[in-house]
Design goal:
The chain has 358 residues and is mainly α. The protein contains 15 helices and no strands. α7 packs antiparallel against α8 and α13 packs antiparallel against α14. It is globular and about 60 Å long. The chain starts with 7 loop residues before the first helix and ends in a 7-residue tail after the last helix.
Length: 358
């Protein structure tokens, strides 16, 4: 049976946010994106277009191809982690997982609200292989592991930055606060799975009993409960998969460090230290998480990279150059992602959670 041509059942069951919530997020996205564009223009102007172009040219076509390859390896390990997050009797072929990850990342990078739809886009991209609820729960399971490893990665990066370099007292306080928040996130994620807290479905049930948002909670409270049961069921049935999934997630970040190190080795005057690449990547990951509403994290990524580069005593413009090169790499894979959307016959309206006619 060709599920690709039968979207009605699954697609009409995709969660949709309340319109006024969407409007608030749109306003926030517009404001943040505007600030990002202003920051981007400022950095390009202050450093100089020609100087930045000269730094970028040092990498060359072959060097840029290596960046594309390194990112593809990151997609492979992320897809491998997702594959292990799918429980029996279902199976996710790695080829379909790769396409799903690329499509999800493309949606997340380009659309201001992409963070809200990337998981759904990944599940829809593999709907020929997995029922939608299984696809969504496996994406959520993989995201839990990703969040756990990413939190550890950011904690280590924050500790390295604040303990190894002289920073202003305000920055030290902010970073210490960040570390405390990340530790709290890790504890929460562990307790959520181990204690099997059905927080989302219980919240929906309480809202429904009180007559709040009944059009949503009345329909979705049972679906969300089933969704949570899939995730907690994975925890009980496949404990031996935990370590391999965590290794894949760690490899994702390690390849990101390798990417930054390679760029520094090509555009810098001397062989870079791994600590420099590690700190630049960890801050870039933090910026990507915090400012996910901003398409291509334009401006804010350059600001974060420039802050770290200046703290490390690196040459002017190095941080911005790294951010620009990675944006070029990102744009290439976004184009690949949208070509996969077209090739698989997916409708853009369905991917962003909006039911379309026809």
């Amino acid at each position: 049976m060709d599920l690709e041509n039968q979207p009605s059942d699954d697609e009409t069951r995709i969660p949709r946010l309340v319109p006024h919530h969407i409007n608030r997020l749109k306003i926030a996205a517009i404001v943040l994106t505007t600030i990002g564009v202003v920051l981007f223009a400022y950095f390009v102007y202050s450093i100089g277009y020609r100087e930045l172009a000269g730094e970028i040219a040092k990498l060359g076509v072959s060097g840029f191809a290596i960046l594309l390859l390194l990112y593809f390896l990151r997609v492979i390990v992320r897809a491998s982690a997702w594959k292990l997050s799918v429980g029996k009797p279902y199976n996710l072929p790695i080829r379909d997982g790769l396409a799903g990850v690329i499509i999800g990342e493309a949606m997340s990078s380009v659309i201001p609200l992409g963070i809200l739809v990337s998981g759904t886009a990944k599940a829809l991209a593999v709907r020929r292989k997995l029922p939608l609820v299984v696809g969504l729960s496996s994406v959520a399971t993989e995201n839990l592991f990703y969040s756990f490893i990413t939190s550890l990665f950011l904690i280590l990066g924050s500790l390295t930055l604040v303990r190894s370099f002289e920073l202003e007292e305000g920055w030290v306080f902010t970073i210490d606060l960040l570390i405390a928040a990340l530790v709290a996130v890790i504890i929460f994620l562990v307790l959520l799975v181990v204690r099997q807290w059905h927080l989302a479905s219980e919240l929906c049930e309480r809202l429904y009993q009180r007559g709040i948002a009944t059009s949503f909670t009345g329909t979705w409270r049972m679906h969300i409960r089933l969704f949570e049961n899939f995730i907690f069921g994975f925890y009980r049935q496949y404990p031996k998969r935990f370590l391999p999934i965590c290794i894949f997630e760690a490899a994702y970040h390690t390849l990101g460090i390798a990417e930054v190190w390679y760029i520094l080795s090509q555009i810098g005057d001397r062989v870079p230290h791994l600590t420099q690449a590690f700190l630049l990547e960890s801050v870039s990951r933090l910026v990507t998480i915090v400012f996910k509403l901003v398409p291509f994290v334009i401006g804010v990524d350059e600001a974060g990279a420039q802050f770290v580069a200046r703290t490390l005593g690196m040459a002017v413009g190095i941080g911005v150059t790294i951010a620009l090169l990675r944006k070029g790499r990102m744009l290439f894979w976004v184009l690949i992602g949208f070509s996969l959307i077209v090739r698989r016959g997916l409708k853009f309206g369905h991917l962003i959670g909006r039911k379309t006619e026809g």
